[in-house]
Every structure is written in C-alpha cells, then in structure tokens.
Amino acid sequence: MKKIDVNFKKPSQQQLNSLLELYQTGRYVDAEKLSVSITEEFPKHPFAWKVLAVVLKQNKRLNESLVASQKSVQLNPQDAEAHSNLGVTLKELGRLNEAQASYKQAITLKPDLAVAHNNLGNILQELGRLNEAEASYKQAITLKPDYAEAHSNLGLTLKEQGRLKEACSAYIKAINLNPDFTGAYQNLGMAIKNVKFNSSNVKLYPLLIRLLSAGNFERPNDLAPSILSLLKHDPLIKNLLLDENFATSLKEANSIIGSLDKLKLLHHLMRVCPLPDLQFERFFVTVRSLLLTNLYNIEASPELIYFLSTLSLHCFTNEYIYFEKDEETELVENLETEIMQTISKSEQPEAIKILCLASYRPLHQYNWSKKLEALDNLEEVKLRLIEEPYTERAIMAEIPMLGKISDDVSSKVKAQYEENPYPRWVKIQIPTKTKSISEICADVNLHLHSESIKNVIAPAILIAGCGTGKHSIGTASGFSDCQVTAVDLSLASLAYAKRKTAELGITNLEYLQADILKLDQLEQEFDIIESVGVLHHMNEPMTGWRVLTDLLKPSGLMRIGLYSELARHNIVKVRKEIALQKVGTSESEIREFRHSLTESNDENHQQLTNWNDFFSLSMLRDLIFHVQEHRFTLPQIKNCLDELGLKFCGFENKYAISSFRELHGQEANIYDLALWHQYEKNNPRAFAAMYQFWCQKL
C-alpha cells in the first residue's frame, strides 16, 4: 500500500483550523475558496482535498466532488472517512457498485465507523438486498445506539419487507432520539398510512399529532384512514360509533363532547382533512343536528366551544358535504337571519351561534363576516373561514391571464372549478431535500431513451392544470434549482394555490390562468411538463396533448395522468344514473344524491363510499359529476405516444409494478405496455385513481 511522504510541504495548522471552521459553520463558498487555495499550494496534502470534495457535493457539483474525493483517497488511502465520503458521492452519481466497494474499504480500515455501515446499508437497500441492509443498519446501531438516521433507515428496510410494526418502532426510536428529525417523521407517516390498526395504542397519539400539526411531513388525507382505524379502538369513542342511538338528548350530547375533548388526536385530524369513514360521519352529522336543534338551550362551555370550532373547520374543509334534513336547513336560514339582524344593530352575536352556523355554511359568503368580533379569540377559525378566503379574492385580481378561454368544454370545466376549487387542502408533504433530474429518474426507475436530460441542472418545468397547488408545490419543492410555471383554467383554484405557495415560502413558482389550447402563446420550451388528471377532461385530449408535446424540448420528460377505462366501470355506471335522474350540480343536489348512495346496498354505490374522494364535495363532484370525462386503455395510450413522438419511460405505481412482476415474472419488461395491458385485464382496479406515467420526447 502506498505510503504518505512525510517530507512534503504542509499547510499551517492555522490554515487547517480556518478551513475546518468555515466548513463547520456552513460558510461553504468561503470554505471552497480556501480549500482550493490550499490544494493549489499544497497539492499533496489530503485534508484540503477531503473538505473540497464535501463542499462541492454540498453544492451539487458531483463530478467535481468526485475528482476531489478520489484525490483525497489517493493521497491518504488509510483514511476510512475519506473512503466513506467517496462512497456517498458515487452513490449520488448512481454508481452503486463502486460506492459499495468504497464503503466496504472504509469498514475494513475502521470496523467501528458507524456512518460507513449505515451508508453501506443504503446501497444494499437500493440494490434490493434487504436482509444484508438490515444487518448493516443494525451494526451501525450497535456501534452507535443513538444514531437516529440508522434507526430510521432500518425502518425503511423493515417496511420494504412488510414488517410494518417493527418499522414503526424503528421510526419512533429515531424520533425519540432526535425530535426534529423531519425524515423520520415522513418515514413514520409513510408506514402508518399502510397500517390498519386492530387495537388501541395511545402511546402513538403524541407522535401522530405532531405528524398532523408540525411541518409538512405527510398529507393528512393519506394518514386519515389509518388514524381512524386506530381511534375506533379508543374506549372514549368505540361504543359511540357502534351505537346508532348514541345521542338522543342534549345532556347525552354534552357528555359525548366532554369525552371527545380528551381525544386531541381526533380534533387535530378533523381540523386538517375530511374523515373518510361513514361511521364517524354519521356520528358528527347526528351531533351537529342535535346542537343546532337545541342551540338556545346550550351552555357555552370551553369544551363545547372547542368542539364546535373543530367541527366548523372540519365542515369547511370537506366543503359541507354532510347531509342535512329539511328542518335543519330551515333552522340554519333562521340562524342566518338572526345573526345578520344582530350585526345590523351594531351588536355582536354569541360565538356559539356563529360556530353552529359555520358548521353548516361558509362564513366568508356573508357580507357581515368581517364585522364579527366573537371569533377574535378563535384565531384558527377566523383565519381559515374568513381571512384566507378574502385573501384569495384579492389574489384573483393579480393573476395574469394568457388569452381568453373560448373553447366550450374548457369554459364549462372552468365554471365547475370556479364553484368548487379542487381540492381544498390544509397541509401537504414537502420533500426533505430537492433532487436532481438524475436522482428523480433513479427514484422512479425510469427507462430513458436519451440520457441527455440528466445533464439539465436548472430545469424549466410546466404544470398544465395545477388546480389548488398541491401538484405544483410538490414539483417546485422536489426538483433542484427548478423554475416552475403552473397554469389552470380556474382563477379560484389559482388564488388558493398562490396563497398556499406564499404561505410555504416557495419562490420558484409562477401562476398563470390559461387554457392548455392557448399555451403555444407562451413562446417557451420546457425540460419537463407535468399534466396529471387534466387531459381527460378536455374536449379532444389529443389536441391538448399535442400542444404540450410541442412545448417540450427534445429529450424532455413528460409526466401524464389519465383515467383508465377498465378501472372506472363502476364510476361510468353511476355517471349514467346521474344523467338519467337529471341530478344537478348544486351543492344541495350533490349532497342529496350522495346521501342516497350511503343508504344504498348497490355494489357500485358501496364501492364509491370506499373512495377518499367521496368525503369532500369538490372531490366528489370531480369524481362522478364532472362535465367532461374521457377514459383510456393502455393500447390507446401506446398509439397516442407513437403518434406524438413520445416514448414510454415507466409507471409511478410501485405496488402495481410489484404485482406486475408477480404475474409476469421478475425478469419481465416493466416498460412493455402490451404486457401491462394483460396485467390490467387480470387486475382491473390496479389503476383505480388513474394511469400515472412518464414519457420522453424523441
């Protein structure tokens, strides 16, 4: 093994200390300048090369980092940490076998280097060697029991093996060791949403509350089914859900509300998303009705105010999807009149009356809503039910428009989303770090037909049909150094999206009102175009798709989402029922028809109640009341791609890919749409949401 020449010229200790301080304090620009200076003056000293490699990697200059890292290892082949650092850079460049060799060399030199064991585990996991990955992570934990990252990574491997309870335990251990470990929270959220609980576990409540309330770790809608399955076993609510006559008097209702006051997890969930469960829905519909009916006999206790605050936020979030009887409608109208008259006399209505009304109707629709003072002590209610909608009205006037929307179908679709911006959301999952196009391609396992797209450092991205911003924000916060342009037909949706974008501090995202048919007026080409759940609502989907293709640079990537003909048979049947019965799209008509579905024993109707979309008015309208819908088969999509000069690069649905391989074998070509069509005929619900896939322009 090569020996280090002890006689070569060395930098001073002061220079080395200064370099180390710059790096440790995050002053990477200065650290790079000094490390470059030292390597030029003392080219045989490994430490400056080692720091330079890490700083360059920090700035995503991976190829330069690789050169510096290799130089560091060459100059000091006995430095285990340098080998481990080299492995990190090689991994990010996708050179997994070389990275594995570097980590193993680091471990050979220093068997107790926990970080190298952890990093080796990452490589083994990515290579699908889960048992070996598990062993590496456990070795890292043995060497360093408080190694939160290793616990979290172990959880990922256990999850991949289907050992969800053990995975959750590993994530919880990581969080206990580092309460600010965002990645562990996100991993816990991903694991939790795949679990259906069969017993109570109150120890999970604080962690789940943090998942829902702090940061943007996971989409609450995705967590809701699992959290509800856990809450159903809680003694405070279990029997109430099973008892159809649980509340027949005001006294019983007050007792129930007092019990629910102790279930903070339920309150947190209700405040951020719809509850996709009919048992819980019937429970809250009954309690809401009982409180309205007895409004003038209720004592405004702190527990009742808290409950009604939660209920009003919840009903606002699900867009008042809950069914109401005729007598409730009459009482609500009377309450509206009473509050209006009270305010007209320059008096203030009681908070309990405002909250009761807010659980049935959106407060911001009333001209008097900004005059309310009774909500001043209920900041979240006032903010979300009044102030934010008013903010969106102001934002609408600021959004630029690209030409007039003249197409008949586009105009009808615009009108639908102006009435019901889709979807209303409170929190979203934000990636813990941005990724390069190369890293995204590796994550999704895309089969590229040209590698040149990976060389794009700062991609220009178009989101065609961004709705209320979940999609555009996810993309803008996911790709490194990207600039995103997001368009939609609906000003109401765009205003919602722009408000949430500003709220999250995202600055690389611009919004524009436009019809896809007019996007040629942008006079700009894009590296990536994403249009998910949009083209199938156009009059001629291929016309819109062709416009998008023309805007895509050669070798550019496109992410598309389209409805499946095979997966939506039951949706088609229900849409036909709606047409035959001439059900309108007013909120009351949608609520009435939805109520009939919940009371029906028809299989198609029952299937619908299992969709998360069933529990929000805008989402339900989008699901079965949409003014325009096309559906596709995979052979049709193949023909579309061929006609447009696009090549299929892969589906996003990892579960479907795993199931596909079970049918066709592990070596089957997952990029063959003919094989996928055979798979879907055997599994018609595989793409129930929609086909989501990537393609590339030739």
Based on the model shown, name its key terms.
single chain, 698 residues, alpha/beta
Radius of gyration: 28 Å
* Largest sheet: spatial strand order: 3-2-1-4-5-7-6
Poorly predicted sequence stretches spanning 5 or more consecutive residues: none
| Backbone structural class | alpha/beta
Q: How many beta-strand segments?
A: 7
**What is the strand content?**
5-15%
- Proportion in helices: 55-70%
The largest sheet, given as strand count, sense and whether it forms a barrel, is: 7 strands, mixed
Shape: globular
First and last CA, distance: 49 Å
Mean pLDDT: 93
Number of helices: 33
Description:
It is a single chain. With 698 residues, this protein is α/β, with parallel strands linked by helices. 56% of the residues lie in helices and 7% in strands. It contains 33 helices and 7 strands. The chain has helices at residues 13-24, 28-41, 46-58, 62-75, 80-92, 96-109, 114-126, 130-143, 148-160, 164-177, 182-192, 205-213, 220-231, 238-242, 250-260, 264-272, 278-293, 302-317, 326-344, 351-358, 379-396, 408-419, 437-444, 470-476, 491-503, 541-551, 569-581, 587-598, 603-608, 617-624, 634-644, 654-664, 673-682; strands at 460-464, 483-488, 509-513, 526-532, 552-562, 646-651, 691-697. The protein has a 7-stranded mixed β-sheet, sandwiched between helices. Strand 2 (483-488), helix 25 and strand 3 form a beta-alpha-beta unit. Helix 3 packs antiparallel against helix 4 (62-75), helix 16 (264-272) packs parallel to helix 18 and helix 18 runs parallel beside helix 21. The radius of gyration is 28 Å and the shape is globular. The mean pLDDT is 93.
